[in-house]
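## retry 2 of 3
previous attempt timed out at serialization; input unchanged, resubmitting
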Amino acid sequence: MVPEGPPLAAHRVVFVCTHNSARSQLASAIWTARTGRESWSAGSQPADRVNPDAVAIAADHGLDLSAARPGGYDQVDVEPDLVVSVCDRVREHGLPFDAPLLHWSVPEPTRPADFPPVWQDLDRRVVRLAERVAA
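## retry succeeded, writing output
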């Protein structure tokens, strides 16, 4: 598969969604697993905990989110090279990062059956993004 668009210089990637309880947590974990690079996730209105179904689907794919905790933008302690929003609502609240923004409209998983297709969508998108990142 040929990556779309020019190479990106993105070594510090932050994935964001409203509650930082599922999609951004999963995208960050997939990014780190696929690329070997650290990533961060944050939300505009962080939930109290990571969705247990997100923890379960990650575990099904060999990733451990059991210690993950939702956090706000103030907990991101790096200047990102790229911000990836994985939900539509998060951009409505404004993003405090001075970095290029990619937007992925990933449906919010609300039932256990929603998580496998969300995982597949995020994994596919992360792979495509990783192919575009300049070495």
